[in-house]
Amino acid sequence: MIVRRIGFAAITLSIWALLVRAVLGVATHRTDWDGVLCGPWGCTPPLSVILACHAAWALTVFPAAAFAWRHLPGSAVIHLAKCLAFGSSFVLTVIATFAIYSHLRVELRPARYLGQRVAVDALAYVDLPVLEILFAASFLGVANAIFKRSANRGAPPKTA
């Protein structure tokens, strides 16, 4: 039985590594969409690179979220989803605040590109999986609500 579990884990990890490698390989392809995200402050990295990084983070975050949803009790999943949503929302707020501050400091017409600048900065931030964690938290909350998992899942049955 243990050999079967080790074999399954090795195959799963190999498939995951191949998927991440394939997704990151997309970053080397150049498209007509590479220079689209530009403004008075300059351009972001190529869109294929940004999408490849976000997809690689998604391949890392979503299996962990699915594992947590599968193995944690319903109340723990709700608390985890709330903490993840709060944390990622806080980081996105910091990114937006910094974008607004740096935009207002240098731009002559502040309101013209402000929304675009905040959206581009949030999208181009790939150092941490902020957007992916926010989506994973949403997935955990929605999946828990749809399937109405009990709070005592995994606990031993009560005896009368």
TrEMBL record:
Segments crossing the lipid bilayer: 49-69, 81-102, 122-147
Keyword annotations of the record: Membrane, Transmembrane, Transmembrane helix
Domain of life: Bacteria
Name the record gives this protein: Uncharacterized protein
Source organism of the structure: Caulifigura coniformis
Lineage of source species: Bacteria, Pseudomonadati, Planctomycetota, Planctomycetia, Planctomycetales
